[in-house]
Specification:
- The protein is an alpha/beta fold.
- 33% of the residues lie in helices and 21% in strands.
- A hairpin with a 5-residue loop joins strand 7 and strand 8.
- The protein is globular and about 75 Å long.
- The protein binds 5-amino-5-deoxy-1-O-phosphono-D-mannitol (M6R).
- 5-amino-5-deoxy-1-O-phosphono-D-mannitol binds next to helix 8 and helix 15.
Length: 603
């Protein structure tokens, strides 16, 4: 949700900023802009639309300079116009600022600044920042001092980067929105997320809330907002530059769907013993969860569906388990006590709704655990513990490989919870041996899928309905989300038994039903399928070849047989491919669906 880039000490500052913005475009693509210290002042270029529009604007300008900042925007305040694009500047165009987040007191600041003679042109909350800095600068002992004074006036959430005329330096501050610094020989980078500069360096410093930083070619200084020096450790990320490139694929989504065997292998590496099915979770030795009797999953979107999936499995093993949409968890927090574990599931670790829910639990003294893909993310740092899904960077706005990796990781967590809290001798060996074999089965699905043919047949349907029971109801919801998100077609997911309680009224020969069978409750699912067939709806079985559901279907997206708790993952891969193929046939911008962004850092 808005991407920030910055670099100092590079020769090709403009090219590097544009490359960084292209790598961050998944965070927003309503408008883009950059500012470069070009020796004569701060040059600012911005354009509504995608980063490619900005590239056009900048082409041929021969911008040089040792320091620069860039921004790709997902609109919160004001429409995606050139004027509202970042960077924003002060009245003299000497201070340029890019921002991710929301400045909640911007109305009040805007009024105050206008009364003091500032001309504020855009609708954005961000524009008050350069004017505030300009207001403090004449009296300040240094630019840092003025920057910190301005930052101290802001309420809300922000990651901010600033450039000031005549200084080869970037000033940055973070509170509530992510900001990471990159360290290279003779150059420093800054970004909302590591892929922005991954091709240059894997050595990073994650800024924390309240940090203010100054980056020059030679140095990084970090202080708190009062100017006290702060130490932050340098970490090495284990992602490689190729992870953040499309390679031979047309879209990141397609690439990431195909990365699932690897992602799954990474998720279970060192955690699942292929022979015994024993699970060992680093950082969670036996007894880690012995005080836990209730688990509350909180998450949004696809991660929420992973929570629903995991909750089915954990409930079945006897644990009191609930699943909450994070945005609702904060509105009406469920009762919790010392025996409760709140598990925040978030790929990015930066989703504002999920972070707010986790903060709520932390404030109430409840134990929290982040299940996330991003080491150093806010969720990983604020929770009592973190468990990483190890999927590698996911760039496509549609979450794909991270869903599979979340399920694999959550199953391992479930095993540790059951181990520590139940008197059961059964250690689910069969499930975990099957989990170890799952990557090969995903490979088989990827090699043999008929999703393209099925997509071709049903792409012009009035609506697409997905049904399933147990873990497959979570997959039904996820499949519908994926299809609507990237194809803009109408899709809904239901627990299969619910179809007859209302949605059946929508079923016609123009509404295919995708029935997702796990090998458990398949007979009941078949009855639900028959109810739809009686209304002449075409049925696609997303099922093993020998499932009773397959015998009553018009079309098939076949999955290899596996443990029932894992069949949903294989079915989901088929349905990811289906969504991809439908969106492709409809010529949709698959990696950048309209109105959406990858990381939603506003509530
Ligand atoms: O980073 P998170 O897992 O917290 O993101 C949560 C949702 O915004 C995300 O899963 C969203 O629903 C996906 N882009 C859907 O494909």
């Amino acid at each position: 949700m808005c991407g920030i880039t910055g670099c100092v000490g590079r020769e090709q500052t403009t090219d590097d900023l544009l490359a960084g913005l292209r790598n961050l475009e998944y965070r927003g693509y309503d408008s883009a802009g950059l500012a470069v210290q070009n020796g004569e002042g701060v040059a600012v270029f911005k354009r509504s639309g995608e980063v490619s529009n900005l590239c056009e604007r900048v082409r041929g300008t021969h911008l040089t300079g040792a320091a620069g900042i860039g921004h790709t925007r997902w609109s919160t305040h004001g429409p995606p116009t050139d004027a509202n694009a970042h960077p924003h500047t002060d009245c003299q165009n000497q201070i340029a600022v890019v921002h991710n987040g929301i400045i909640e007191n911007h109305h009040e600041l805007r009024t105050e600044l206008r009364e003091r003679g500032h001309d504020i042109e855009s609708d954005t909350d961000t524009e008050v920042v350069p004017h505030l800095v300009a207001e403090f600068l004449p009296e300040a002992t240094s630019t840092e001092d003025a920057f910190r004074s301005a930052i101290a006036r802001l309420d809300g959430s922000y990651a901010i980067a600033m450039l000031v005329e005549g200084e080869d330096a970037i000033y940055a501050a973070r509170d509530g929105s992510p900001l990471v610094l990159g360290i290279d020989e003779g150059a420093h980078f800054l970004a909302s997320d590591v892929p922005a500069f991954l091709e240059f360096t894997d050595r990073v410093i994650y800024l924390e809330d309240g940090d203010v930083a100054k980056l020059t070619t030679d140095e990084i200084e970090i202080t708190d907002v009062d100017g006290n020096s702060v130490e932050r450790s340098v970490q090495t990320v284990d992602w490689v530059p190729e992870d953040a490139k499309k390679g031979e694929y047309d879209h990141f989504m397609h690439k990431e769907i195909h990365e699932q065997p690897t992602a799954l292998r990474q998720a279970i590496r060192g955690r699942v013993d292929p022979d015994t099915g024993e699970v060992t979770l680093e950082d969670f030795p036996e007894g880690s969860f012995e005080s836990i009797d209730t688990v509350q999953f909180v998450a949004c979107g696809t991660s929420y569906h992973a929570g629903l999936y995991a909750a089915e499995v954990l409930t079945e093993r006897g644990m009191r388990t609930t699943v909450h949409r994070a945005s609702e968890f904060v509105v009406n927090p469920p009762p919790a006590d010392d025996g409760t574990l709140v598990v925040g599931i978030t790929q990015s670790g930066e989703t504002a709704d999920t972070l707010a829910a986790l903060d709520d639990a932390i404030e109430r003294g409840i134990r929290t655990l982040a299940v996330t893909n991003v080491v150093g993310s806010t969720a990983a740092r604020t929770c009592d513990d973190a468990l990483f899904i190890r999927a590698g960077p996911e760039i496509g706005v549609a979450a794909t490989k991270t869903f599979s990796s979340q399920i694999a990781t959550l199953l391992c967590l479930i095993r540790a919870l059951v181990r520590d809290t139940m008197d059961s001798a059964d250690h689910d060996a069969e499930l975990f041996r099957a989990l170890h074999a799952l990557p090969n089965k995903v490979e088989h699905v990827l090699e043999t899928s008929r999703a393209q043919q099925v997509a071709h047949r049903y792409q012009t349907s009035e609506a697409h309905f997905f049904i399933g029971r147990h873990t497959a109801q979570a997959v039904a919801l996820e499949a519908a989300l994926k299809l609507k998100e990237i194809s803009y077609e109408h899709a809904e997911g239901f627990p299969a038994g619910e179809l007859k309680h209302g949605p059946l009224a929508l079923v016609t020969p123009e509404t295919p039903i995708f029935a997702i069978a796990t090998g458990r409750n398949d007979e009941k699912l078949r009855s639900n399928v028959e109810e739809a067939r009686a209304r002449k709806a075409p049925v696609v079985a997303v099922a093993a070849a020998d499932s009773p559901v397959s015998t009553v279907a018009d079309d098939h997206l076949t999955i290899p047989s596996t443990h029932p708790d894992l069949a949903g993952v294989l079915a989901n891969v088929q349905l990811q491919l289906l969504s991809y193929q439908v969106a492709s046939l409809l010529d949709r911008p698959i990696d950048k669906p309209r109105n959406l962004a990858k990381s939603v850092t506003v509530e």
